[in-house]
Design a protein that fits this description.
Blueprint lengths: L1 H20 L9 E4 L2 E5 L8 E6 L7 E5 L8 E4 L17 E6 L8 E5 L6 E6 L5 H22 L1
Parallel strand pairs: 2-6, 3-6, 3-7, 4-7, 4-8, 5-8
Antiparallel strand pairs: 1-2
Length: 155
């Protein structure tokens, strides 16, 4: 009977551990490498060190990202075939910056306006079954914010 009580009491702890990680099974998250650092989308909001938000109102945006039709004109190109698997070249390390996408804008994080308009800070080209233009925009804006913080700290 004591063994059954111990087993029953350990089930909530196991479930809490699974939820604390943010997922049941590991899933590949969009990620880009920049030198020795990588920037990856977080699987859960509490994992993110930095957040970006999106808006449909260009006047509220702090960063504009244009979706372009050719890879040659893009700052970030994400293209994959239907059944490709990530090669692990962008694995999470201690230096990985985790980016979260917030449902609402905050004063601390960038607010992204994603469009096809030519007046943009960044240009992205995305042809992927797993990565959306919104994911790519969050990665490039999060990566640029990381470099700005690193440059300011070096001064």
């Amino acid at each position: 009977m004591l063994r059954l009580k111990i087993l029953a009491s350990s089930i909530p702890v196991i479930l809490a551990a699974a939820f604390a990680r943010g997922e049941w099974l590991p899933a590949d998250q969009p990620c880009i490498s920049i030198g020795a650092t990588s920037v990856q989308l977080a699987t859960a909001p509490w994992q993110a060190q930095s957040h970006v938000a999106f808006t449909d109102d260009p006047s509220r945006a702090t960063v504009r990202v244009q979706i372009v039709d050719t890879p040659d004109s893009a700052d970030l190109v994400i293209a994959d075939d239907a059944d490709s698997v990530a090669d692990g070249s962008c694995g999470a390390t201690a230096a990985t910056l985790m980016i979260g996408i917030s449902p609402e804008a905050s004063a601390a994080g960038p607010v992204v306006y994603l469009s096809r308009d030519a007046d943009a800070d960044y240009r992205i080209y995305v042809r992927s079954k797993t990565v959306t233009p919104r994911d790519a925009a969050a990665l490039i804006v999060g990566a640029s914010g990381q470099h700005a913080r690193m440059a300011a700290a070096a001064l």
